[in-house]
Amino acid sequence: MTDAPAGDVRSAAERLHDHLAATAQLPVERRARRLLGEAEAVAGDMRACEDRVVVERAAVVTDLLGEIEATGDSRADAHLARARALAEDLARREPR
């Protein structure tokens, strides 16, 4: 998993999914787990989509992650912060 600045849309979408998937085995609070799971599912689906769809779905992921204040685990919080940054970057892009 790399945290290099987001390059192409597909690479950023892959990294977003990787960060969300990394939280799956961590001890995360129940509400955060549900929201992370939903965000991971959306991020997983968007990896195979056209760029314009990725941008739209990244906004959905941003909204879901925005509802999480903390996860209860510092490692999950770090992945959450990186996932938020990637989702926000993707959601701001101009769809092609």
Question: What can you tell me about this protein's structure?
Answer:
It is a single chain. This protein is mainly alpha-helical. The protein has a domain at 28-92. Helices cover 68% and strands 0% of the residues. The protein contains 4 helices and no strands. The chain has helices spanning 9-21, 30-46, 51-66, 74-92. The model is unreliable at 1-6 (pLDDT under 50).
Q: Brief overview, please?
A:
With 96 residues, this protein is mainly α. The chain has four helices and no strands. It has a domain of 65 residues.
Helix and strand arrangement:
Blueprint: H1 9-21, H2 30-46, H3 51-66, H4 74-92
Q: How far apart are the first and last residues' alpha carbons, in Å?
A: 26 Å
β-strand amount: under 5%
Main sheet specs: none
Radius of gyration: 12 Å
Secondary structure tally, helices: 4
Q: What form results from the Cα inertia axes?
A: elongated
The percent range for helix content is 55-70%
- The helix-strand sequence is HHHH
Uncertain spans: 1-6
Structural class: mainly alpha
In total, the number of strands is 0
Return the average pLDDT rounded to an integer.
91
